[in-house]
Amino acid sequence: MFTGKKVKIRFKRYFFEQRVRVFVGIVLEMKDAWIKAKGKSYYLVKGEAKPHIDKIDKVVGVPRENIYSIRELPENLDLENLNFEVKDLRMVITIPGAQPASISE
Hints:
By secondary structure, the chain is an all-beta fold. The chain contains no helices and 9 strands.
């Protein structure tokens, strides 16, 4: 379904103190129980102005039970130069010509 597409994957939080983790990248493969994707993880810490970002792309295997939500992103979005801003107390990735993608709660 999402194979070969750019996506934003938000991971579930299992306790309140856990950091918000979002993965932005390209889905390489999808199976019934997991998703294999290549991209970067973004960690959001409360009280900080910008998210912590992985320096290089990595390939990850994500169990579907750990995924809170998946959003398909436009194909023309440059994953290397994402812009972040705060809108209505939420950290978002600005997407030209589309609704911003939230990375905070």
